[in-house]
Every structure is written in C-alpha cells, then in structure tokens.
C-alpha cells in the first residue's frame, strides 16, 4: 500500500521532460476572462430555472450559500496554485500533499466533473439554439427548425442532441488551434455575455413585484422529498446551482501556461469569483422578482422566457442569440480544464503516456483534446441536463474538499514555504470549505451520490489494475 502514500516533490513539480511541457502564453486578463467565461454561463442562463423549481424565491439564499462555499474554496485554490504553478489543479495539489491514492481519486473525480460540465453546457446551449431556430421559423415561415429527433436525447423522446454534439467539436477545434488564440476569442465573447445579463437586469427590474417573493421559502431549508418524488428545499437547490459558481478551478489548470503565475493566478481566481457572485445575485433577484418561479422553473431558456412573458420579445431574442454565441465560452473553459487534467495524469503515467504529447506547432495537447471531444460529445448527445449537472457537482465537491485539506496539510507540514498569495484566516477558511462542501454533497439527490460512489469504485479498480504500476513515481522507486 506504499503507492497510496507516495507524493510528488513540490520542489520539482514544475520540471517536465521536453515534448510534454506546456507553453506559457497567458496573462491575468486572459485568466479573469477564462474564469468569468467558465462561471457565468449555463448556471445563470439555464439552471436558475432548475434552482427556482426546487427552492422557490429562496433560490436567492441557495445562490448565496453556494457562493460562500465557493469563495472559501477559491481562496484555497489561490494559495495552492501560486505555490505550485503546474497544470492539474486539485489533482496535482493532492499528489503533493495527500499522496498518490487520494490524488488518483481526485483526478478521477475531476474527469467526471469536467466531462459532465462540458456535456451539460452543450445541452444547455442546444436548448437556446433550438429556441432560436423555432423563432426563425415562426418569423420567416422557413423550415429551419431541427426535427425533434435530432434536437433532443432519448430521455426527451428524441434520438440524439445533434447541436450539442456539433458545438463540442467546434470548441475542441478552437483549443487545438492554440491556447492563447482560443483565450483571446473567449475574452471577446465574455464581454457580450455580460452585456446581455446587464440588459436583462435593466429590463426585468421595473417589473419587480414583491408578491412574486411570497411565500419566500415554500419548500423549506433542508433537502426534503416532495409528494411528487422530487427533492426540494434551499439546500437541494444550492447543491444543484453550485454548478453555476464553480469555474474558477479551470483557471488553476492553466497555471503551467501562465506567464507570471505568482501574481496572475490569484488575480484571476479571486477576481472572477467576486465579480460573478455579484452578477448572479443581481440576475437571480431580477428574475424571481419579475415573475412567479412556477412560470419559468421548467424552462430550458428561463431568462429568455421571462423577457417574452413580460412583452419584451426583442430582448428575449437578444438573450437567446447571446447565449448561442457566448455559452461556448463556458464550454471552452471547462473543455480546456478537462484536457489539462487528462494531460497531466497521462504525463504522470497514471493514464497512457502516449496521450501527453504536446504539438510542436501549437503548443497544445492535440491527442488528448481529440479524445476528450469524442468522450463528452457522446455524453452530450444523449444526456439529461439536471441529472448530469448534479453528478458534475459531486466531482467538483470532492475536488474542493481535497483542496481545503491540502491547504491545511501544507500549512502544517511546510509552514515556511514561500507563498505568493496567503489565504487569510486559513484555519477558518479551510474547514469552512470542507464542511460546506460535505453538506452540499449530502444535499445532492441520493441517486447522484450513488452514481458518484459507483464511478469512484470503478476508479479504484482502474488504479490497482493499471495506474499504480505505470505511475512515473513507481518507475522511480
């Protein structure tokens, strides 16, 4: 069982062989845009409806709780990423602080997280795209709408969600072209996304009606099973819309490709987190104040629906168009993170080493990006939004718990190691991140918890059958 405890040397964590080293091309504006691009997306454009259905107007509290837990995790990420500016995020930190066994579990959970996030966002994007095509058909009379069989997965009576599959491969192509190029396009699209949300708030606020906030907490605070078999409550909603807040962890996967990681990573992680929390609270308040949650709770495009119901069809169209154009920024950020997690685990030998080759011309891991595209496109083609979002949250919560633990372990084990960013009140922030994430995990649907445990049971088998003996640390023992 020695393999479970062997750790990477922090002093050599940024040393890599030629041909498997990522190229530093990013600065802090790219990272802030990457973070906002990842965070502000499907969560506010689509999952606000799912959250409102579970918590009613108290979805505002759900956003606040999820935001506080994420803020604690973000502070831990900021310290660890500047101290260990290597790709791999929570997986790499766990490898250095907690040992290979736990690192494998976290890496395996991150594979689940990023794969499902990309699939979820692709499905969310497809919903807006289908809505736009239907509007075009209504306005022009042209048969531009996709047949239902090609616009929805089997769960919704279709065959395959073709738009979701296509957008995954489009984003994969952009990432293969180069990291800096795709990050620049991302930054440009993020501006459009923020403008659209600002317009939504400006138009919805005058329609604010306090009656829409009563009863404020119709389903109570803790997770509870309703008569219809659906788990509801403030915490049940928080556990789902937690998905809307994370994304800053994708920034930490860019550590190896950052020009000045000691400064830029902390700016990117904390800056994007603070900005997005304020944006979310404003948009959620405007949404539940302008319309009863029962109207938009089941919609695949809740913000656009609210605008249409209020008689602002042009604004609804604008939000739909911006979602179509800008939601791929979320895809890009998480797809980027997924490919880097795969890449680092491959470079460490825990996954086949052949996947960790870097293209000499673009400086990107083309093979692993293509492999990731096939995996998530297959999932997006048949997946159901709410279920895969919840399962993605389980993987993220595991990673955040590990990062909180790594923060405390390294503060104890290596208190004098230089830290470009020091988490304030670390012995309060770390436990809050851990306990908050544990409570959110408990608040997930029981089916989600069982699927997550099943996934990691498979992961343990893969580790003992393949990864343990192929690990680069095993070869050096």
TrEMBL record:
Which InterPro entries does its entry note? Answer: AA/rel_permease1
Q: Which GO terms describe its cellular component?
A: membrane
Q: Indicate the segments annotated as coiled coil, or none if absent.
A: none
Q: Does the record carry Signal as a key word?
A: no
Q: How does it sit in the membrane?
A: Multi-pass membrane protein
Give the molecular function GO annotations. Answer: amino acid transmembrane transporter activity
> What keywords are assigned to this protein?
Membrane, Transmembrane, Transmembrane helix, Transport
Segments passing through the bilayer: 31-51, 58-78, 90-111, 116-136, 156-175, 187-208, 234-255, 267-295, 315-337, 358-382, 388-410, 422-442, 448-466
Can you say where in the cell this protein is located?
Membrane
Q: Which residues form the signal peptide?
A: none
What name has this protein been given in UniProt?
Amino acid transporter
Q: Which organism is it from?
A: Solilutibacter silvestris
